[in-house]
């Protein structure tokens, strides 16, 4: 549903997760704790100058999902107990000034945020549970090594709670794992529309999602049965 813009900060440490390269065990959801109008690009610029102190894998704002560090390696996002295990995703904050523009920005950024959390969990088939989906606040309370309490306070500014995040991520994760419709009951034009819909669910540059490939295979087999395509034999 959303593109992921990849602009990795050069020179970051490349330290594998505790279970190996790319073997993250879950995600930690953060909020940036500051309000600035540019969003993710500004956060990346700050990170590029200060990564020896802290850096994360993604920033999410009202315009983009920006990947700033490789998901193959740990980041410095939530202390020595969480970092070897989890990816870190920062939500860029929008000040709630009561304006429709601010509300729209928050909604756009929040929707990208929960989508990304679900997608990253889905890519590793980790499921959504207390073991895989963490807030920075819960890391502070349960794992230690950090004392931040985001994103809970920021979410509260917009009448959202951590339970809302859990519910929304769970819903989106289930949408990834289960095809949205029974494609065998569709007509020819509906199948074509379903193929187009599937492309909107894939981030730019990622065509290797196991679920998506399996779903495309199902669609293709049914299109063969309905004589909508002709099989190419090598």
Automatic annotation (TrEMBL):
Residues 15-152 form the N-acetylmuramoyl-L-alanine amidase domain. It comes from the Bacteria. GO terms for biological process: peptidoglycan catabolic process. SUPFAM superfamilies: N-acetylmuramoyl-L-alanine amidase-like. Coiled coil: none annotated. InterPro entries: Amidase/PGRP_sf, Amidase_domain. GO terms for molecular function: N-acetylmuramoyl-L-alanine amidase activity. This is N-acetylmuramoyl-L-alanine amidase.
């Amino acid at each position: 549903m959303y593109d992921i813009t990849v602009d990795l900060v050069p020179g970051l440490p490349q330290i594998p997760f505790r279970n190996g390269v790319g073997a993250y065990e879950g995600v930690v959801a953060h909020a940036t704790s500051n309000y600035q109008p540019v969003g993710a690009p500004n956060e990346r610029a700050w990170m590029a100058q200060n990564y020896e102190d802290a850096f994360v894998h993604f920033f999410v704002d009202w315009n983009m999902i920006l990947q700033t560090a490789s998901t193959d390696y740990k980041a410095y996002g939530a202390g020595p107990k969480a970092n070897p295990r989890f990816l870190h995703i920062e939500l860029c904050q929008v000040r709630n000034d009561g304006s429709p523009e601010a509300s729209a920005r928050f909604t756009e950024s929040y929707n990208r945020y929960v989508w990304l959390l679900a997608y990253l969990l889905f890519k590793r088939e980790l499921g959504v549970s207390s073991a895989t989906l963490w807030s920075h606040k819960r890391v502070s309370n349960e794992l230690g090594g950090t004392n931040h309490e985001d994103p809970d306070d920021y979410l509260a500014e917009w009448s959202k709670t951590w339970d809302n995040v859990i519910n929304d991520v769970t819903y989106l994760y289930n949408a990834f794992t289960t095809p949205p419709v029974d494609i065998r009951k569709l007509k020819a034009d509906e199948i074509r529309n379903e193929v187009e819909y599937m492309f909107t669910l894939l981030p730019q540059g990622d065509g290797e999602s196991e679920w998506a490939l399996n779903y495309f295979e199902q669609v293709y087999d049914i299109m063969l049965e309905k004589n909508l395509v002709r099989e190419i034999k090598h």
